[in-house]
Design a protein that fits this description.
It is a single chain. It contains eleven helices and 14 strands. It is of the alpha/beta class. The protein folds into two domains: 145 residues, NAD(P)-binding Rossmann-like Domain (Rossmann fold), CATH 3.40.50; 170 residues, L-2-Hydroxyisocaproate Dehydrogenase, Chain A, domain 2 (Alpha-Beta Complex), CATH 3.90.110. It has a six-stranded parallel sheet, with helices on both faces. A three-stranded antiparallel sheet has the order 7-10-11. The chain has a three-stranded antiparallel sheet with strand order 12-13-14. Helix 1 packs across helix 9 and helix 5 runs antiparallel to helix 7.
Length: 321
């Protein structure tokens, strides 16, 4: 059966802060028809299932929510992975590589043994590395393995620019691309507010400065560290970002979202998953959108690619070349 003709079934692996927040947001937006929740901590997952079902009378659509196992992934359209070791205070996303690669090998192997033939959506950090690993471990086409990428960074950027220019974030069109981490970059050359380039606002009005924009970006880049310091983890924002990607997939939207995608020659690069704008529909990633980067942006994006390849190379032979 073609993906676009299937009933909307989602399996969630990992019911920690991010996973349970995703399930809550998914139910409240009424996007999927069925949600299977899977976790090594069965009692936690079963408790989440019961808790969510008790709120079903208030949901826009009575999504069927149940506890399950890897075997249930066989008929799923989408498997969302939120399992793995968490980022601790003072720890970068890339510090998590060793621990989470081992966890993901087990998860992906178990999912594929079920006969799964849908789309993977990866949220666990370092998301670009683990999305690449999921692609390699699963053997699925690159279009059907997607990472959350810089979707949250882009949302934070749009929110912050909206606050700065006093406009709704929905009227801000701007991207953060690259690694979901310290080497990411803002694409000012393609940033618009109501159809007007952001840099034009800077030139026309002395109230706004490029230095302020740089400060906004730094705050966006480091936002996770501040949130982790304050409350131990980030989960609401990324959960809503995951639901947004889920909706684009299940509703066959052809929406452009900044996800972690395999470049496969785009931007002159290969053997890496990294955050870039991409067209998302029921088949996964339809195509990658290549932005016209200026020289500084090209150099910073190249640096971000190199950071990820240096992490991937010891684990995947094809990246070394």
């Amino acid at each position: 059966m073609e993906l676009k003709n299937r009933v909307s079934r989602v399996a969630l692996i990992g019911t920690g802060f991010v996973g349970s927040s995703y399930a809550f947001a998914l139910m409240n937006q009424g996007i999927a028809k069925e949600l299977v929740m899977i976790d090594l901590n069965e009692e936690k997952a079963k408790g989440d299932v019961t808790d969510l079902n008790h709120g079903k009378a208030f949901a826009p659509d009575p999504m069927h929510i149940r506890f399950g196992t890897y075997a249930d992934c066989a008929n799923m359209d989408l498997v969302v992975i939120c399992a793995g070791a968490n980022q601790r205070p003072g720890e970068t996303r890339l510090d998590l590589v060793e621990k989470n690669l081992k966890i993901f090998k087990s998860i992906v192997d178990n999912v594929m043994e079920s006969g799964f033939d849908g789309i993977f959506l990866v949220a666990t950090n370092p998301v670009d590395i683990l999305t690449y690993a999921t692609w390699r471990f699963s053997g699925l086409p690159k279009e059907r393995v997607i990472g959350s990428g810089t979707i949250l960074d882009t949302a934070r950027f749009r929110y912050s620019l909206g606050e700065y220019f006093d406009v709704a974030p929905t009227n801000v069109h701007a991207y953060i691309i690259g690694e979901h981490g310290d080497s990411e970059l803002p694409v000012y050359s393609s940033a618009y507010i109501g159809g007007i380039p952001v840099m034009n606002f800077i030139e026309r009005n002395k109230e706004y400065t490029k230095e302020d924009l740089d400060d906004i970006f730094i705050n966006v880049r480091d936002a996770a560290y501040e949130i982790i310091k304050s409350k131990g983890a980030t989960y609401y924002g990324i959960a809503m970002g995951l639901v947004r990607i889920t909706k684009a997939i299940l509703y066959n939207e052809n929406s452009i979202l900044t996800v972690s995608a395999h470049l496969d020659g785009k931007y002159g690069e290969d053997h890496v998953y990294i955050g870039v704008p991409a067209v998302i529909n029921r088949d996964g990633i339809r195509e990658i959108v290549e932005l016209d980067l200026n020289q500084e942006e090209e150099e910073r994006f190249q640096n971000s690619v190199n950071v990820l390849k240096e992490i991937l190379a010891p684990h995947f032979e094809e990246v070394k070349g």
